[in-house]
Amino acid sequence: MEGLAKEADRWFRQAENDLKAAEWNQQGGFYAHACFWAQQSTAKVLRAFLFMNKEDAKETRSVSELLERCLTYDEDFKAVVEYGSRLDIYYKTSRYPDSLPGGIPAELLSSKDSREAIKAASDALALVEEKRKEYVPEKM
After folding, report:
1. What count of other Cβ atoms lies within 10 Å of the Cβ of residue 26?
2. Domains defined along the chain, listed by start
3. Per-residue model confidence as pLDDT tens digits over 83-108
């Protein structure tokens, strides 16, 4: 495994780990944390896909922006585009009390929120995993 292919693998493996963290937090009732880790997993798996296509998207953490870039390589990402903006919201609102009016993330984000975020992350991870099976890295 060479260069960007190795980097894609590293980002994919971390995305898998972040998804497990989201699921663990969901099970424990830490819904805001689950939302955050689902967002992180999705962003990282999309970066893995971009590395597979010889692109480094280090200047953004936005799931929506990463999805737009993934779409330039593969139309199959249309299936997960709807998740982008919702997951982007969790990047800050799941962690900072001043990002939500009248409460804290731990009190305002629900089990439903985290289940939906985890579903989005799972779908994105499954899509990229499928693309990895088709991927043949070029020699650099």
Report:
1. 21
2. 3-134 (1.20.120.330)
3. 898 899 999 889 999 888 888 999 99
